[in-house]
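explain this.
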Amino acid sequence: MATGGLSLDFRFFRNVLALAKQFSVPSILGGGVVSSEPERIIRALEPSYAVLSEGERTIVELLSCLEKNGDLLAVKGIAFLQNGRYLETAAREPIMDLEQLPLPDWEGVGLSSYLDKMKPSDGLGWDLFDFPRQVPFLTARSCLYSCTFCFHPIGKKYRQRSLDSVFQELEIIISKFKINIIEIVDELFSVDIVRVKEFCLRFRGLAAKFDWPVKWWCQIRVDKVTDEMLSLMEESGCFLVSYGFESYSERVLRSMKKNISPSQIENAVKLTQRKRLSLQGNFIFGDRAETFETVSETMEFWKKNRKAGILLGIILPLPNSDLYQYCLRKGLIQNPIKFIENHMWNPINLTELGDWDFARLLHMVKIARLKYCVRAIPQEVTRNLVVVVCPFCKQRIVYRNFDITFENQDLFRLPSTLAFFNKMVFCRNCRKRFYASSKLFRLFSHLIQFFSTPLGHFFHLKRTKNSVSLPWLGNLRLFQGRKID
């Protein structure tokens, strides 16, 4: 049995590997979850073998070695426990020529069954169509940059596929599975403007071959975006552009090693909003360099550009990122496995602020989301239908096959006046982001804004520490007994 993925799915891997062990089935674990911290994860999850970094060649050699009862230590890029002793073989070289790899066996993984179940409410940008059929499509691997909150499980060697290879596979997969949305997976899609121009030209020609609309979206860097580039992308069928903003503070951007500037962020936002393109971007608060001054810099820009629909969040120290290693050194994460399994979504105070001030920061972000995000109350909501007027262009938009349930609760068990939902959507006319919110949610939002205080965040922070120091009690230490250890 083989499985793999990212650390956020840690519990899933624990359950699957435990099941394999229960039935005495050999297991293989791969992906970022184990490549980030091999020994620690292997001891915690106990797979039979781990495939580190890129897995295409490694897993083939590993299976061949097992079949022939060969020498496991001769297989590069694996790790395992032998009588309780951790063994890791020599690192495998990155696959520099991606053309050597065969095309994915999409039918073998049952792609059609996933596509048939997709709803426009289930994923970013899927609401472009009532019956989306989106695939993530890899055109490059890794990234040249070293942002402090990021970890590259397949190494830092950036490699691109040739466009001939890309479009050969695109034509096959679109025609065979009736794909209508392509998510281009390339962290540096915009690094080469000549390549971007050729991609747009070829995609436009490819899409014209089909009797259904085929659109695409991608990630690009703010330091590479131009008006010409965005126009070419829009004309070729691009409908959404994702940026890595993270902060509008020069100080925080330097701390994050983003290699971009606030002026470049402002330019990207301005240029994108001129087009009929959806904008995806985040501001994440809580970097080591964060202060109330830097928060204000970012928040003021965010408020002035509410129409851009930029999301707000809190920075997470993902396993083996620079921030994660900092947390280990400082004792902010005392038990990494418990952190990965139970606390990865919980904010950690990485800043120089005291915990009370950091709780105030978290509270500011929460209230800003409730107060300033653009919302609209739908005119009509049924089990699979949402009708709403866009608050920007005033166009009446009908979303069919749309599941607007909130936190797995079937709102249609209640009268429509008591429905509770707050669903992010993109307008199909102007492509702006807003939230389709019920009247009950709007009331809830106002109550939270009125009654909420930073205390909830403060005590939530302290639940993962050995003791707390309340701001009004001076040096008195209150022991909580919920340390991550």
